[in-house]
TrEMBL record:
Organism: Caproicibacterium amylolyticum
Family annotation (Pfam families): DegT_DnrJ_EryC1 (PF01041)
Positions annotated as active site in the UniProt record: K194 (proton acceptor)
Highest classification ranks of the organism: Bacteria, Bacillati, Bacillota, Clostridia, Eubacteriales
SUPFAM superfamilies: PLP-dependent transferases
CDD domains: AHBA_syn (cd00616)
Keywords in alphabetical order: Aminotransferase, Pyridoxal phosphate, Transferase
Domain of life: Bacteria
Descriptive protein name: DegT/DnrJ/EryC1/StrS family aminotransferase
N6-(pyridoxal phosphate)lysine: residues carrying this PTM: K194
InterPro entries reported in the protein's UniProt record: DegT/StrS_aminotransferase (IPR000653), PyrdxlP-dep_Trfase (IPR015424), PyrdxlP-dep_Trfase_major (IPR015421), PyrdxlP-dep_Trfase_small (IPR015422)
TM region(s), chain numbering: none
Length: 375
């Protein structure tokens, strides 16, 4: 067996080489490297795929989260509710705006933001009267959308804006509604390791709100007005390269097949590992795109043993994420302490992710499960 990859981008390239190479050659021949026609083509296809009216591609997933917050004028004195168990970018953008992230605990089964804890945290901020509650950033972790029916109701009840962090959620869904179409705006990332990744940095914002769409297009290019050299607000320089759009187009076309493959792989993993570990829980009517396949061990010690055994057998595994955000050094001034968000803290100590991608073979999965079953 070949060396086992955590995410086998080489296998994907081998499968899509003809179309990717042709796209790159076309983009170079066109020499329209910034905002070339492939970018608009991709935005239209992303709208069709997600069911959103508008898509604004940009430089990376972090900017895709930052841009709607800028457009909504989130600023110092504002509170934005963010899960503690996620990648730092989800809260970093709040801090970049000068606002304060208020961390929310996770559901022990799906690992996504807990709607009940969200309600408590909103009530606490309101009671304290120090910060103005403005927005919720809900993160679709590991491929499964957050409980949006509940979260959307909470946002509405409390007059909060809702931003979906779909950096890992792209391809997931609830019923017929796809990820990156929930809330007032959604963001995704095309970082190479994501389920839909390019060959560098990239991202996109989605919305159905025409006014926000216009603002986002301005923010993407230095706060431009009707033309590039008219500057009407402070923005960013955050565009998706034409080359990356050309690479993403064939990858988006292959995405549904890869998504199916990952879901079959997840079932195969679960069939072999249920009982031994807590396998991923996908809620009824929900679809996960399984960008990551994440197990939960019983304890930190068990996780260490398991990951050591995997390593010895030549199997890569990664911890997403070893430290919840409220306990990160950067947020020390916010005054959180251990025990404040017990579910998120426990997850950080016990979860680990196994190799998962759209080209993983049954043979590889069976080998990995064989190693795990023997422990
Ligand atoms: C990857 C990721 C981001 C950031 O995306 P970049 O393209 O790396 O900037 C944000 N949120 C989550 C949940 C992510 O996984």
């Amino acid at each position: 067996m070949d060396k086992i990859q955590f995410n086998d981008l080489g296998a994907q390239y081998a499968a899509l080489k003809k179309d990717i190479d042709a796209g790159i050659a076309d983009a170079i021949a066109g020499s329209h490297f910034i905002s070339g026609p492939q970018v608009e083509e991709l935005e239209a296809e992303l709208c069709a795929y997600t069911g959103r009216k508008y898509c604004v591609t940009c430089g990376n997933g972090t900017d895709a989260l930052h841009m709607p917050l800028m457009a909504w004028n989130i600023h110092e004195g504002d509170a934005v509710f963010v899960p503690a168990f996620t990648f730092y970018a989800s809260s970093e953008v709040v801090s970049l705006c000068g606002a304060t992230p208020i961390f929310v605990d996770s559901c022990p089964d799906t690992f996504n933001m807990d709607p009940e804890d969200l309600k408590k945290k909103i009530a606490a901020v309101k009671a304290e009267r120090k910060l103005t509650p403005r927005a919720i950033i809900a993160v679709d972790l590991f491929g499964q959308p957050v409980q949006f029916p509940e979260i959307e109701a909470i946002a509405k009840e409390n007059d909060l804006l809702l931003l979906e962090d779909g950096a890992q959620g792209f391809g997931g869904g609830i019923g017929k509604q796809r990820a990156c179409s929930f809330g007032d705006a959604s963001a995704t990332s095309f970082f190479p390791a994501k389920a839909l990744g390019c060959y560098g940095d990239g991202g996109a914002v989605f919305t159905d709100d025409e006014k926000l769409y216009t603002l986002l297009k301005s923010i993407r290019v230095h706060g431009k007005g009707s033309m590039k050299y008219e500057n009407i607000r402070v923005g960013l320089n955050s565009r998706l390269d034409t080359l990356q759009a050309a690479i993403l187009l064939p990858k988006l076309h292959a995405f549904p097949k890869e998504d199916e493959h990952r879901n079959r792989a997840a079932q195969r993993y679960a069939a072999a590992l249920k009982g031994k570990f807590q396998t991923p829980v996908v809620r009824d009517g929900y679809h996960s795109s399984f960008g990551y396949y994440t197990l939960k061990a019983e304890s930190e010690e068990q996780r260490t043993c398991v990951m050591d055994a995997l390593k010895a057998a030549g199997i890569p595994s990664i911890i997403y994420y070893p430290c919840p955000l409220h306990l990160q050094k950067v947020y020390k001034p916010l005054g959180y302490k251990e025990g404040d968000l017990p579910v998120a803290e426990n997850l950080a100590k016990t979860v680990f992710s196994l190799p998962m991608h759209g080209y993983i073979t049954d043979e590889t999965i069976d080998y990995i499960c064989g190693v795990l079953q023997k422990l």
